[in-house]
Design a protein that fits this description.
Largest sheet: 5 strands, antiparallel
CATH architecture of the largest domain: Alpha-Beta Complex
Strand content: 5-15%
CATH class of the largest domain: Alpha Beta
Number of domains: 2
Number of helices: 9
Number of strands: 10
Radius of gyration: 20 Å
Oligomer: single chain
Strand order of the largest sheet: 1-2-3-5-4
CATH superfamily of the largest domain: Aminoglycoside phosphotransferase (APH), C-terminal lobe
Shape: globular
Length: 315
């Protein structure tokens, strides 16, 4: 029996403790394993995940201040199985990726606005949010020397992601209360439409792995990047932004030009998405598809419009 089979068997046993139906493996990304048993799911987090930050995040999402915003775990306990951290959650219905027109953009925007409004001081201590660190890690995993890979690296070199405000570092307590105002507050850290599930009639945010203190504007970076690249319908983007602002979200400013806050996060997210896309194409030994090429072209535009790139070599 393989190590993966052993892990799945143990997840099934944990699921049997809490669930009411036979356990089944749920397809997800390659570094995560999820088993569902009726009304619960058991998640084996990515290899290398650290216990202390995850435990802090589990305590935070179990706090009443996040009730109805982020999914509350079945138990705050973090188990270890075969070197992997494991948590248990209620099962929900994800967004149907085969029906993009039905995606709950406005509901997602309102949830993010509510999340960003939660004062950090009301929660148990939290680590820094994901975001900039994910960008750097994704680019670092890009191994090839293709023209597309060089464009990604050059675009990354143009961005200033090493300041506390952009690096997901937690500020000192006196630096601000959070609540989504300014560069520091509560942030999901890895928001996209796959981070929503429906419980009953309500949508709720999921995935605690990158929750923490950082710039909430990074939670809007992915749809902003898709819109800027021409890959998200402008009407969808404007509905999303309007719903976020109407719900009190301040990460893009209360009104006026949102790009004063979103430009850097959106460009950085474009670099991250492109790095992942180029790596996938090179691993599969195939040419870039149409969407992947659009992302590379967008990275090239980032290079052209950032004066810091003048001193960055192309080879």
């Amino acid at each position: 029996m393989s190590e993966s089979d052993d892990l799945i068997d143990e997840l099934r046993r944990i699921a049997a403790r809490y669930g009411t139906a036979p356990a089944e493996v749920v397809p997800t990304r390659p570094d995560v394993v999820i088993v569902r048993a009726g009304a619960v799911v058991v998640k084996a987090h990515a290899p290398g995940a650290e216990r202390a930050p995850l435990a802090e995040r589990m305590r935070a999402v179990a706090h009443p201040a996040l009730r109805g915003i982020m999914l509350e775990p079945v138990t705050e306990e973090v188990e270890t199985v075969g070197g992997r951290l494991v948590t248990v959650w209620p099962a929900g219905t994800p967004v149907d990726h085969l029906d993009p027109d039905a995606a709950p953009w406005e509901a997602a925007a309102r949830l993010l606005a509510r999340l960003h409004a939660v004062p950090v001081r009301t929660l148990p201590p939290l680590p820094g949010a994901g975001g900039p660190a994910r960008v750097a890690a994704t680019v670092a995993r890009l191994q090839g020397d293709s023209a597309a890979a060089l464009v990604v690296r050059r675009a990354m070199a143009c961005l200033s992601l090493d300041s506390p405000a952009t690096a997901g570092q937690a500020p000192a307590p006196e630096a601000g209360p959070g609540a989504g105002s300014g560069a520091h507050g509560l942030a999901h850290g890895d928001w996209h439409m796959g981070q929503l599930v429906r419980i009953g009639d309500e949508w709720i945010l999921i995935d605690v792995d990158d929750l923490g203190i950082g710039d909430p504007a990074w939670d809007l970076a992915r749809p902003a990047a898709w819109f800027a690249a021409g890959l998200l319908d402008p009407g969808v983007w404007h509905r999303f932004l309007a719903a976020y602002r109407a719900a009190g979200g301040l990460a893009a400013g209360a009104d006026g030009d949102p790009w004063e806050r979103l430009n850097l996060p959106a460009q950085a997210m474009t670099v991250q998405l492109t790095a992942a896309a180029v790596a996938n194409a090179e691993r599969e030994e195939r040419p870039l598809d149409e969407v992947e090429q659009v992302l590379v072209d967008t990275c090239q535009r980032i290079v052209q419009f950032r004066s810091a790139c003048h001193s960055v070599p192309t080879q």
